[in-house]
Amino acid sequence: MSQSKPKVILTRKLPETIETRMRELFDTTLNDIDKALSRDELEMAVKTADVLVPTVTDKIDADLIAKAGSQLRLIASFGTGVDHIDLGAAKARGITVTNTPGVLTEDTADVTMALILAVPRRIAEGDALARSGQWQGWSPTGMLGHRINGKRLGIVGMGRIGEAVARRARGFGLSVHYHNRKPVHPETEAELEATYWESLEQMLARVDIVSVNCPHTSATNHLLSRERLSLMQRSAYLVNTSRGEVVDEIALADLLARRHIAGAGLDVYSSEPEIPAGLRALPNVVLLPHIGSATIEGRLQMGDKVIINVQTFWDGHTPPDRVIEAML
Ligand code: 8YV
């Protein structure tokens, strides 16, 4: 790789210390206003950058990649999920893609656990009532939710985040069930006392809380279809901190409205920042604005990873977080 500094374009504003470091190391173009680049600006970026640093809010599709100049060699995404990047198109053009796995596992698992607690225990409704001035005081039958302890949690996708959720869930007295392409290591399974379900359908019909923790790929798009969601018990809850597209959001809103599913906690949506009105109208749903990994510590570590990936790549080595489609 060339000895000179790579031209790196950041599509969004990153933490200041990360931007400062990137400016020291690379020929870096920042995005000073924290607004996603327009399509035209993105096209200009791929025509001029050696390295593009996008986020989940940028659609790096085949059409955009086709417009890239031959100088674009690396897409170093700031985030773990890579479903906003057409990996096949990048590979065909010889463009390496990296992400930032591992450093947002615990933060995302915390938010998942928060939703697992918030929905059955009606935390958001309680907060709204307390602020409203309408609270009439304690009552034996007021604001009753459902107990967490002793319930069954079904994790869809037992990767790093799924396992971190399982560890937390054990502490709250939940039993762990999971569906994955293959069972996890027997030692992990034993430690978590986790039950593997090869059949997602069978697991969905038997658990009290479903947590979606798999990546969004062509294989998991609408994995939780209307048909599969309909298998859930009427008393069950669904939590999604992965990607909106893994769940059929319209079917979910419909089943929640008809109380075929008791409640849901969502941090992600299919067409962010849009949240379907059908979901926003429901009292049995807790909605968050994609904050799974939103900690200062996490964002700094994500930035550090981007820097290491860019530097390693530019030094002529394989970057540590190279994304290979088959691994997803
Ligand atoms: C990130 C995420 O903040 O990393 C991911 O996959 O979903 C988020 O928590 C976002 O992707 C940053 O690009």
Can you describe this structure?
- Helix 8 links the parallel strand 7 and strand 8.
- The chain has a 7-stranded parallel sheet with strand order 8-7-6-9-10-11-12, sandwiched between helices. A 5-stranded parallel sheet has the order 2-1-3-4-5, sandwiched between helices.
- By secondary structure, the protein is of the alpha/beta class.
- It folds into 2 domains: 7-102 and 295-324, Rossmann fold; 105-287, NAD(P)-binding Rossmann-like Domain (Rossmann fold).
- The chain has 13 helices and 12 strands.
- Helix 1 (16-25) runs parallel beside helix 13 (296-314).
- The protein binds 2-keto-D-gluconic acid.
- 2-keto-D-gluconic acid (8YV) binds at residues 55-56, 78-81, 104, 292-293.
Please report the first level of CATH classification, the CATH class of the largest domain. Answer: Alpha Beta
Q: From N to C, what is the helix and strand string?
A: EHEHEHEHEHHEHEHEHEHEHEHEH
How many structural domains does the protein architecture include?
2
Rg on CA atoms, Å: 21 Å
The side-by-side strand order for the widest beta sheet comes to: 8-7-6-9-10-11-12
**Low-confidence stretches at least 5 residues in length (pLDDT < 50)?**
none
Straight-line N-to-C gap: 28 Å
Largest sheet: 7 strands, parallel
CATH topology of the largest domain: Rossmann fold
Helix content: 25-40%
Which ions, cofactors or small ligands are bound in this entry? Answer: 2-keto-D-gluconic acid
- Count every helix, treating DSSP H or I runs of 4 or more residues as helices: 13
Share in β-strands: 5-15%
Report the principal-axis shape.
Answer: globular
| SS content category | alpha/beta
**Count the strands?**
12
**What is the H level of CATH, i.e. the homologous superfamily of the largest domain?**
NAD(P)-binding Rossmann-like Domain
Query: What is the architecture of the largest domain at the second tier of CATH?
Result: 3-Layer(aba) Sandwich
Mean pLDDT equals 97
